[in-house]
Amino acid sequence: MARATVHYVNVNGMDPVSPFTNWVTATTNIQNAVDASASSGDEVLVTNGIYQTGGRTLYSISNRVGVDGKNVAIESVNGPGVTIIEGYQVSGTTNGSTAFRCAALQGNTLLSGFTLTGGATGTGALGQGGGVYCSSTTCVVSNCIIIGNSAYAEGGGAYGGSLVDCFVINNSALEAGSGTGGGAYMSDLTNCVLTANFSAYRGGAAQNCTLVNCTVAENTGEVDGLDGCKVYNSISYYNTPDNGGSSGDGNAFTNACTIPLPYEGDDIVTNPPLFVNLTNENFQLLPWSPCVNAGNNTFILNPTDLAGNPRIVAGTVDLGAYEFQAPLHFVTLAGTNPISPYGTWLTAATNIQNAIDAANAGDFIVVSNGLYQIGGRTVNGYAVTNRVVIDQAVTVQSVNGPASTIIAGLPGTGAFASEGCRCVYLTNGAVLSGFTLTNGATFGSDPTNELSGAAVWCESADAIISNCVITCSYAPDYGGGAYQGTLDNCIISNNVAFLDGGGAYLANLNNCIITSNRLIQGFGGGGVDYGVLSNCVITANRGSVGGGALNSALTSCVISNNSAGLGGGLYECIATDSLISSNGASGNGGGACSNLLNNCILEYNIAIQEGGGAYGSHLINCTVVSNSANDGGGIAFGSATNCIVYDNNSPSGTNWYVSLLGYCDTTPLPGSDVGDITNDPVFVNPVAGNFQLQSNSPCINAGDNAVVNTSTDFVGNPRIVGGLVDMGAYEYQTPTSVISYAWLQQYGLPINGSDDFEDLDGTGFTVYQDWVAGLNPTNPASVLA
């Protein structure tokens, strides 16, 4: 048998030569390659691009791609995200005689890996299949996104054909009283998602179709969401005006999730399907979805699901387009018939540890509401008991979140103890999500493995804690709440450590709130010690050194209302794009002590001794305002470049004290330092805390580019705009001059750029050149020697 010929298509091809059998001679539109192929067996291979030219008339309608009497395979190289076939919709009417359908197929043609969009049809009898028209179900459309197409009458997205692993989105059948099958008409659909489709009459999602393992959600029809369809192993939910279950809809459901109970249906789940995120159209299933393991394996047509994952996991197929991938183990305190491996709610374990012990790496443990405070074990020979030991890479997740699902170290609530039980131990690769961890307490002699991490102890950053509340726990050494691990979207509150890290120690924290943690006696880090923090709020923590954080790296954080002896907010930290506000130190550095700060705002911090905003710190592009201390209301014994240090309070050194400043706006002038100005910075609204620069601020273009080490400012806007960096945490985004505004204002020159390149004093130098050379642009005698 002769090997099939491959014909190549590249929208940017430079030298197309028929029959287009290599990339060098590739055609620029798909139709040419189809026309050049043999009657059957050839392949048309299409690389990235938008294909919106060429076409063929079939069924009396123009089609961007038309396959007439040939059995060819038309496949993209890199999938639907980058390979688009675009039809044409008539302005004003959408469908009409000049419209282009995306594709029309006959025979055993395969169309795979494309986005089909913008297609439309003629009117009347020609109004079928806006995205794709197939002569029969022997035409296969796979791995395609069929979106934004329209038909006058039937099949806004697709008419006929077999659709496999496709998204059918936002298509419409528009004719009032006859528009049917907004998504699909007379098609066989497997592993497909149909959403946001519309019909002006029946079947907003589909009419007269067969659906196997499909998800049908949020479609709209004038009469029904599904009409005249056979539905197997599928979900039809959240459609308008109904999901297709009434007697007049003519649907037959078998092993399906829909509501109410359909007129014709067997093995129906009526509870909500529990998608991961319906709002964002993520139709994958949560682990406790009633659709998991609710299907019938005899209907399976494909070995994989829409995401390409195995179709059957844990023995029984799920409902819908996606298969939940991890075997499940269930836990409920109300269980009456626990049978290992606890694979259903009826046989659920009554404590979390039993389910973990029955699981394998990669499995999912689903935990129902309750207070879990009995049982426990030690790990690796260490003395401290752990209420739950997650000693393999499994996910342990609650059904209803931390308010309803609690793991307690000690019985009762709100008490600290010098001996007791840690809440949870996590190994590498383990995930804990949706719990309150409380009343953990550790004991023993090993400072790391026994005396640290009272609520949760993690082997490394590869252990994940998400959406948890970590509270009211005590560690004699490090990490009253958490030791190591990566914490996402957690609240860490009211924990205590004796030595370091009242809230957390050696942890990565993202989008967390760290509040009201403290140290009893140790060195520092009331909130966090040795942490890496992003988008966190650190507030009302107490420590001897670094009330909010010690030895940590912080990005886009809020550090407020913390207190310590040194560094009320931060001590020996690196902070970028962060707000340091209303912290206090009984010694030095109300906001920060011994820190490197970039693009930060320091406001309303207080030090009893020196450096209300910062002490012994290096600041770049920071705004330091309304801080107070006995010496150096803004900064003391530190350095600042490209900063605004203004309106601070102190009886000795209102804004700065014994500090090195360059290219800063402050008062009084520091003396020998360069580039400093004393002008009012002209903030937008300092009373309301808006320290952005007004259009006439002297701080615009007044900094030194050489020290800038970030590409964005405090709010993520480009850091250098107009050629020169501004002073302060904010970069003014629309400067009109490329010269320092303060320098221009010094000579009474406009800041709108009109004089930048004018020779005002007749010396042969423009104003810009005078500025660079340090000359007076208004004095003809001011020239270079």
Report helical residue fraction: under 10%
SS-based structural class? mainly beta
Distance linking N and C termini: 90 Å
> Counting H and I runs of at least 4 residues, what is the number of helices?
4
Q: Using DSSP, what is the number of strands? A: 82
Largest sheet: 18 strands, parallel
Stretches where pLDDT is under 50 for at least 5 consecutive residues are: 412-418
Q: Tell me, rounded to a whole number, the average pLDDT.
A: 95
Estimate what percentage of residues fall within beta strands: 25-35%
Query: Whole-number radius of gyration?
Result: 34 Å
| Cα shape | flat
How would you describe what is shown here?
- The protein is mainly beta.
- The chain has 4 helices and 82 strands.
- The strands form 11 sheets. The protein has an 18-stranded parallel sheet that branches. The protein has a 14-stranded parallel sheet with strand order 35-36-39-42-45-49-53-57-60-64-68-72-76-79, with helices on one face.
- Strand 35, helix 2 and strand 36 form a beta-alpha-beta unit.
- The longest helix is centred in the N-terminal third of the chain and has 7 residues.
- The protein is flat and about 90 Å long.
